[in-house]
Amino acid sequence: MIQTYIVKTAAGLESVLANELKDLGAAGIRELKRAVAFDGDTRMMYRANYELRTALRVLIPIHSFSAYNERDLYEGVREVDWSKYMTVKGTLAIDSIAHGDVFRHSHYVGLLTKDAIVDQFRDRTQRRPDVNIAAPTLRVNVHVQGTRVELAIDASGESLHRRNYRRDTVEAPLSEVLAAGMILLSGWHGQEPFVDPMCGSGTLAIEAAMMATGMPPQHKREGFGFFRWPDFDKKLWAEVKGEADDKIKQSLDIQIIASDIEGRARNSTTLNLLTAELEKVVHVEKMAFEKALPPGDVPGTLITNPPYDERLKVEDISAFYKGIGDRFKKCWPGWNAWLISSNRDALKHVGLRPSRRITLFNGALECSFQKFEMYEGKKFDGKLVEGVEEADKVDEGL
Fold first, then answer.
1. Predicted model pTM
2. Is there a contact between 295 and 257 (Cβ–Cβ < 8 Å)?
3. Is residue 374 part of a domain?
4. Is there a domain that residue 241 lies in?
């Protein structure tokens, strides 16, 4: 049966997620705010959960109505026959978001929704389902915007940003979904070298390796929310998973390198790669960015998440970013280099003109994701200026 699904994502990644869904073969794709809607069957829903790299949750809308007060909200939730989605022996969790002047407290909206559901079961069976926040039989999503209430059930369960390969972290790690989105936005498709010279716990390199090998992002996950539903089709799920897993490559013809000045970061990245079963795909080094060099003669893509001077402090953040730009110019000709940072003043000290700027969010921090094209010589007024030193002179004269 074809129905509508809503896939949640991070702000700024809507178009990336829409392209992922297009590649899966989904129909009726519509970009929303921090989400993308699509039409599909159960197979496509299973694939979306298992194969989408920039998805946070897959939701199935089941009911919408208007509510002008608490009673309207309670009765509107009770209009749904909840026995279709769980039994009284199951467990329940509510995720709620409320915006507007009518309902101002998300937690209270969640409590009203929970009460309406359990009261329906109690009226029918003289029993009520229990609440289980961690691993419920049914997770319900309620979204209130003004007087409009949207109810959906969560097919994913635990957030899809959790790939289950992260066993150790250093400070300020990137979300797996953000890392995957950054790589997809860069246009890198696993056909050329990839380097992260400030790798932290290795998230960018691991996500790149998963893409290059064709490993599904949820390859290490043991279960999804839909596993607990009455209509879970085990045979169909096995087909979906098997078809995706059969495409995994065991080796690559390109190099993926993760390096960091901190030994702790190298160890964290190595452990996470072992958990992801990608230790033979990514080369890990303990090395300062100032000493890192491109691997081989084939240009590739460099993406990194340097300190912002927010959670990780740098003594002279302007000089640090200037050093990044100087190193790009001198040692990475032909490469596409991408930086993400919430420190826009520091980014100005890179000293290079970005060819793209994309606004993304690293947690609550609004960041600029910037691309720097390191030509063999730099472009100036449409012409290529030969040699790094000459290019620097042109820049200084701008």
1. 0.91
2. yes
3. yes
4. no
Task: Note whether residue 373 is domain-resident.
Answer: yes
**pLDDT digit string, tens, across residues 18-54:** 999 999 999 999 999 999 999 999 999 999 999 999 9
> In terms of Cα–Cα distance, which of 99, 109, 111, 104 is closest to 146?
99
The model's pLDDT over 332-356, given as tens digits with 9 standing for 90+, comes to 999 999 999 999 999 999 999 999 9
Q: Is residue 384 part of a domain?
A: yes
pLDDT of residue 196: 98
Question: Domain range holding 345?
Answer: 176-214+249-396
**CATH code where residue 69 lies:** 3.30.2130.30
Q: pLDDT digit string (tens) for 356-380?
A: 999 999 999 999 999 999 986 554 3
The DSSP annotation for 20-65 comes to HHHHHT-EEEEEETTEEEEEE-HHHHHHHHHH-SS-SEEEEEEEEE
- pLDDT bracket for residue 240 (50, 70, 90): very high
Three-class SS of residue 326?
helix
Closest CA to 50 of 325, 236, 285, 261: 236
Are 143 and 198 in a shared domain?
no
- At a CB cut-off of 8 Å and minimum separation 6, what does 212 contact? 190, 194, 249, 252, 254, 256, 281
CB-based burial, 353-383: b 16+ in 10 Å, e otherwise: ebeeebebbbeeeebbbbbbbbbeebebeee
